[in-house]
Amino acid sequence: MKIYNKLNIKFLLVLVIAFLSSCSKEFLDEPENTAGISEPIVFSDRDIVQAFISGIYARYKGQWDDDLTDDSIEGGNQSEPDTGGLYAMYFARSLKGNDLIQSPSFFRFDYAHDNRAPTFRRTSFTWTFNYEIINYANVLIKGLKESTDLDDATKREFTAVAKSIRAFHYFQLALEFAPNYNNDRSVTRIPIYTEPATAESVGNGPSPLSDVYDLILSDLKEAIPDLPEERLGKSYINKSVANGFLARVLLVTQDDWSLASSAARAAYGGTAESAVISTNWGDGFSDLTDQDWLWGHFQDGSNESNFFWMAPHVFMDHLSLSFQATYANTNFRDEFSTTDVRRLFSDIYNSSTPYREFITTKFAFTFASDVPLMRKSEMVLIDAEAQYNLNNEPEARDLLFALQKERDPNAVLSTNSGSDLMNEILLERRKELYGELGVEWFDAKRLRMPINRDDVHRVVINVPIDSELFYLSIPQSEIDANPNMDESLNQ
């Protein structure tokens, strides 16, 4: 394990000072790295612990450079938009399928499935980002446990937050650096850490993938009962969001569809017809106050903005000053009926280049565009898939129709069954969630499907079932720094 994880705790403690002195609507003003406060002080007061957690969430919107140090740290280099925070990881996944097309801009190597080698920035960033946040969560868990100043209720609540954060990021590592869970649960690629790193820490060896998922599931199941629904804003994890995490994980393990359904229902509220209502379609998909949004990145256009970094908006919007780099596959566009509010595709360039025929106006870019990370509509579709796998096809069709009729007034209740119904649910996931979290890649990996691109694409590539292209190599920097990791992991 790299020592920078310990050093960056000092940086995060600076965020606490900024939070306490000048708190903004969702996070905090950008801090100056000039001083810090000790960890014992952080865990002496509820407000300071909350500030520490706010600092963790602020790192989700970080801007990371080639050396994977934050720009505010002395010696940091220029960031690149494709190695930002959580949003960059999600958008890299979004471009790996057939539905979206990337021009020769940032994320072009992700789009080409050519960004997984041990020395590449995508690999190093994804590993470093997730393990750094995991270390913050471990610091939080340990500090809360050892605090003599905080009451038990505060400890339980914030420990639940920390375990939710830790579970979420181990899930990202499992998705990004390991094969499909159900192919070989004994594969060893991901080290587990449940204690904070120190300057003397020696990296752990990789654990079986089954152990990684056991930790993810136990963290979430322990956390959810102690999490409140109340929160400072939608950038924060609460009970509904943690239930959403659990529902997503169970889509991968595919061994408890009843719990997947109940977790999804706890996340979306249990009434699908009201959960899926959204005013964001046709309005830029940039407002996290929309009742459909469970979790998102807040931006205010000034002190809380990633400016020209925040994907997907800055890459997919062609009608404002932005990268104007992402196009929509013509064949994907044709999957939407003409009365579907999500059919937001335009031929603005009148180009003879096939991949440049259609752009999407789903996302409108400004410095104040909020970014969706989880929505109730996704949870309704998870519930539909769970009901299908529980052999309750009528309920699956009803849940699917609750979303379809809200998006398209001319939608009719599906008569599909069997694999046709499952394929309809998967298509609806793509239509609803494209550009947001890499749904097409996620579903192909967990369900052992190929990714086959048609000839509309700028880069035509076929990714076979269970291909190594579905996961990244272990970073060379980790292999060099950790004596318990070796080159054989990448063979």
UniProtKB/TrEMBL annotation:
Residues 118-251 form the SusD-like N-terminal domain. Residues 1-26 form the signal peptide. Keywords: Cell outer membrane, Membrane, Signal. It is found in: Cell outer membrane. InterPro entries: SusD-like_N, SusD_RagB_dom, TPR-like_helical_dom_sf. Residues 369-486 form the RagB/SusD domain. Belongs to the SusD family. This is RagB/SusD family nutrient uptake outer membrane protein. It comes from Flavivirga amylovorans.
